[in-house]
Structure prediction request, 589 residues.
Amino acid sequence: MIGRMEKAARLIWPVLSLALVLVVLAALLSLGPMPLQRTATEAFIRLIVVIGIYIFIGNSGILSFGHVSFMAIGAYGSALLTIPPTMKKIVLDLPPFMTALQLPTIPAAVIAATLSSIFAFLIGVPLMRLSGISAAMGTFASLAIVYVVISNWKEVTGGASALIGLPVYADIWVTLIYALLALGLAYAYQESRYGRRLRASRENEVAALATGINVRRERLIAFVFSAFIVGFGGVLHAHFIGVLSSSSFYLDVTFITLAMLVIGGMNSLAGAVTGTIVVSVLGELLRLIEAGFDIGTVHLAAPRGLREVGLSFLMLMILLFRPQGLTSGREFAWPIAPRAG
Amino acid sequence: MQSVRAADGGTLEARDVHVRFEGVRAISGASLHLGQNEILGLIGPNGAGKTTLVNVLTGFQRPDKGSVWLSGRNVTGRTPFQLARDGVARTFQGVRLFGGLSVFQNVEAGALGVGLGRHRARERADEVLQWLNLASQAMARADALPFGEERRVGIARALAMRPRFLLLDEPAAGLNEHECDELRDVIRDIRRRLDCGVLLIEHNMAVIMGLCDRIHVLDQGRSIAEGAPSDIRANSDVKKAYLGEDFV
Prediction:
């Protein structure tokens, strides 16, 4: 009986410990001033995106520079489904049924994230034939395509001008709940037969094929699933800011989310969470230093761009001295040592 | 003769297989059949095309000419994972474990690969680890193992697939005498317990002669002889292939 309970504890501890950390952080930060709460909310949204990216990169071992395109599709998809018709009539030029359509936020979010998945499936079928650097470049190309389309498709996305009028509902608690869901789903996937088969192929593709693993298919499953989670992150981003512009779904976010994953350690869920927390905290500190502070009449401020330079420097150090990331690609293990025998 | 064998269920066959690499003939006319419940040795000098033939039989190499048959069905051009799911397992000369995973996860992956769920795969992995005396190493990382154990995990992973045919590419290379003896017991055990046909590529003649029901000899990509161990030992073509013209 005790043995079985201990076994169960061992199994869920890696994800339970992370969930506890997030809940405690949210509880503490929710007591802080509004700007701090907003920073925390933004960090939880980033976390959902990073967990989504991790589902693919971490389990398959294939780098993707394209996942932010799924975020964009989720964000714009949900925007089109939730902006009030009167507003849509003014800023967009949609077919009548699309203009009239307005859904409650949760169904809209699920549909938008599903659209990201469908897009991932369509580009994934050819992309999953590639591996290594060509796969990474292929995903990058898909990001560029989505970015350019969104920036120019005036009728549907508003083009270069920002899209406004989205209902704002993503606060710290809402994003916490979705972050916990993402965490649970990611862990369930990596512990499933699908996740295990993909992780085997990450270690040795040839041996995986020889043991009956359809590597391409397993990669595609992870790609589509990860697009759903990242798409959901995009949805929450949209309904946190309330305003969408295409430039918020391009290189900056791609860099920062990948930096989070690399710094934390891209082979474990614990790495995705650790990296997001560390980079968010550090980024915030650097931003404060950048903004400067007053001592008496003297205003001290660091040069602009300190945040980007600081984070890049940290990533470089990690790559050089701890290439498996802060967590070394491990999950957090059950802290009690197994009894002898 | 061959079609009769095919009818009773278990054979893996190469028929007149040819493979070229950028104009160089790696295999030019190799044919062999492996029945269930038999141990077939595949020997030949370095560069004779033994591994290439295994690659053809497991779908990693598409033959330029000739065909592969599994229990009477033409399976030429099937992908490696399809053949693996149909019961053809192999090990690699370079072992190729899933280095960052534990020994247990390596073996479990074999069972998951052929379609088992987590629960049954776990049971099967436990069973195979017990069998191959690896249970105490189950939680060790695969890339931290000593060489001999690494090879044993490679075999365990293939056995977790419950194969009908198991192709072992130089499993004794680099093993000490004690480990070689253990390996021999394991291979005998595999045939007995799994009713599985074993193809054994090996340079260690003690292992080959002691284990095999039949031996197939490749030289310069061609099948030059096949027979019982005693016949092969006496065969002059085989001596010529191994030792050169002058010694015969």
